Amino acid sequence: MRPLRFHWCAPRGDGNTKASEKDLANELNLDGMIDFVQEAEDLGLDSLLMGIGFHLPDPLPLIGALVRETRKVTFILAYRPGLMPPTLFAQVVNTISWMSGKRISLNIVAGISPEEQAYYGDYLQHDDRYRRTDEYLAILQRFWHGESPITHEGEHYRLSGAKLGLPYKDGDRPRLYLSGASQQAQENAVRWGDCWLRYGDTPEGIAAASRFVLDAGREVGIRMHVLARETRAEVLAEIKAMMANPDEQHRRNVREFVRHCDSEAVKTSFRLAEGAVDEWLSPVLWSGAVAYRGGPALCLAGSYEEVAKSLMQYKKAGVTEFIFSGWPTRGEMRRFCQHVVPLVRKLEANEGEHEEIALVI
């Protein structure tokens, strides 16, 4: 019966205005980001996802700056095990926990593209990356459980008497989100994570895919987009305008990227989009932007009431958290928080009342 938790993906500037344009951050507007995260905090969002990728500024220094400009909102740091050894990574995360009052969570991503991994000198293939992630998380947990010194000899890491002077604040650890659609990803999420994070699907599809994770007592979160307006007619008009004059070269580039990608999550999202009827997987699940923006672009689109009711359907399927984006992302964040979230809270209150009645009966 816990209320749904809502997060947002923080842009590196003003964010995209259209679903059919490329997302390449060739400049950084820190003042604009500060203004964005402060509004997100005022709107009551739980967390802000700080994504990672060659096309983005690195999220670590940004979080270091943004935690000092906010007081309540948490930052979800997306990071890959191959970029930093576990001792140093634990040291960095522990430092941010003290800077922020523990307002940092982790989205550990094994990686989605051999080509991009190679940009950073990382040549491990899919299954090897997940084995490394498992080993990485095992070491991190030892640090956060207060073990010291740590000696480890594994397939990917070797540590000799490793120590850290600064623990995670209050002897705690960050909340862990584990991404990926493969069986290995789910097993890592069950072994080490608090929440398995995946791209969108219908509630029925999510329920079926999440059974292993839910049965193991872990939570499920969805990363997707949202487009909510007062009426469905406004939503359809917005989609039509947003998809006008699309960047077809960018679409071809994305298709080529996916062709070489080894991520089951990415490939599943594209298979769903390709199987949609006139770009709709359901009356409220639009897939038309996936070809231009990838897996996160599967979009919950409808009136405020339709979106709120759909979120409750996902909740019944076992989903407890959502990380949303929008086009343009700031305006959509504002509309979602002001118009959709209050409807969700009313539906959840009624859900609680019905549960109490059932218990009495």
Automatic annotation (TrEMBL):
The keyword Flavoprotein applies. It comes from the Bacteria. This is Alkanesulfonate monooxygenase. Pfam families: Bac_luciferase (PF00296). One of its GO terms (molecular function) is alkanesulfonate monooxygenase activity. Keywords: Flavoprotein, FMN, Monooxygenase, Oxidoreductase. The keyword Transit peptide does not apply. Signal peptide: none annotated.
